[in-house]
Amino acid sequence: MTKEIKSIEWKDGVVRIIDQTKLPTKFEMLDIKSFEDMKNAIRKMKIRGAPALGVAAAFGLVLGGRSLKSHSARDFLLRLDSLAREMLSLRPTAVNVSWALQRLVRVARENQSLKVEEIKGILLSQALKLAQEDAESNKRIAEVGNKFIKKGDSILTHCNTGSLATVSFGTALGIIRQAHDDGKEIHVFVTETRPRLQGAKLTMWELKNYDIPATLITDSMVAYFMFKKKIDVVVVGADRIALNGDVANKIGTYNIAVLAKEHGIPFYIAASLNTIDMNISSGSEIPIEERDESEVTLIASERITPKAVHVANPAFDVTPRQYVRALITDVGIIKPPYRENIKAVMRKLKRI
Predict the structure, then answer these.
(1) N or C, which end of the chain has less CB nearby within 10 Å?
(2) Among the options 37, 153, 232, 239, which is catalytic?
(3) Tell me, what's the pLDDT at 50?
(4) pTM here?
(5) Domain that holds residue 165
(6) What letters, b where the CB count within 10 A reaches 16 and e where it falls short, cover 191-230?
């Protein structure tokens, strides 16, 4: 049995999160009591991962709404819109933040005939529902994706896509957990994931917690291990998927996808259907977050490069659709041609 990790939960009017900046050396829970607290936690990467960020943004909006002293629903909705825009600006690439905030604002508008305090209660109910839906979605992704993992497979994954990046269980790492729990005797290769080292710090911490055999490698070792035939399959997550199947994920994902294709290794994306942005036709339209240069120039506060050097630090890259074998979602497998098949799934579910 594994020890279950819950990255975020609502408890007695407070949002409790794991402070991921302290891992792997220290496990510490933080109580988020206000909108500003949540903004700070998201900005400083105390909580991260697209699905978890969506839920965190929703709870942050609930906290922000609770603090508003509006006497009319109209005034409350205007100020709620402003808070949502403020929250969205923190992590522009992860589409989960956008759809979670839009959902709460839409529900508030649908109930504007009610008293302000009643609308606030409805917002909390929606945020709690989002959290529950994410946990259930992850379990379905794990069940769907497990069919692609064979007994004895060595699986490469990049960044962190486990319980820390979601409400619980995980997406790509959830598939890995399911395969392990089913006795498939897998081994996981984990990229360190520069510059913030989410693979080294967070994924390795989770895999150790779940007693899953794993090997940590640097990002530049991927080609070596593929050439040596040490990797059987690649499974990673996504922060946003365009309608044509292009995928934005942690920087370095594109490199891995190209190498996987060159070596004949299947490359899969594991993400909920909510990660698909129907308003973006291709990856070229996905906004890419540029983060502070200190993430590149410092490691654990130690400078590793001369001062006053020019630094680029995009947090994500876009993997073109032709490198993706399939999208593993909570409603099943989506294969190429992506534009047609994504639309077909959305029509079937009456989302378009």
Answers:
(1) N
(2) 239
(3) 95
(4) 0.95
(5) 141-348
(6) bbbbbbbbbbbbbbbbbeebebebebbebeebeebbeeee
Same domain, 173 and 276: yes
- The span from the CA of 241 to the CA of 238, in Å, is 7
Q: Which of 139, 163, 197 is the last residue before a domain boundary?
A: 139
Q: How many domains does the chain have?
A: 2
Does the annotation mark 239 as catalytic? yes
Residue 151 DSSP SS3: coil
**CATH number, domain containing residue 319:** 3.40.50.10470
Tally of helices (H runs) and strands (E runs) in the chain: 12, 16
pLDDT reported for residue 1: 38
Please tell me whether residues 198 and 309 are part of one structural domain.
yes
Is 3 among the domain residues? no
DSSP assignment string, 184-238: ---EEEEE--TTTTHIIIIIHHHHHHTT--EEEE-GGGHHHHHHTT---EEEE--
Q: Which two tokens stand for residue 135?
A: 């946990």
How high is the pLDDT of residue 346?
A: 96
Are 280 and 345 a contacting pair, CB within 8 Å?
Answer: no
pLDDT along the chain (352 residues), means of 10: 80 96 97 97 96 97 95 95 95 93 97 96 98 96 97 98 96 98 98 98 97 98 98 98 98 98 98 96 97 94 94 98 98 98 95 81
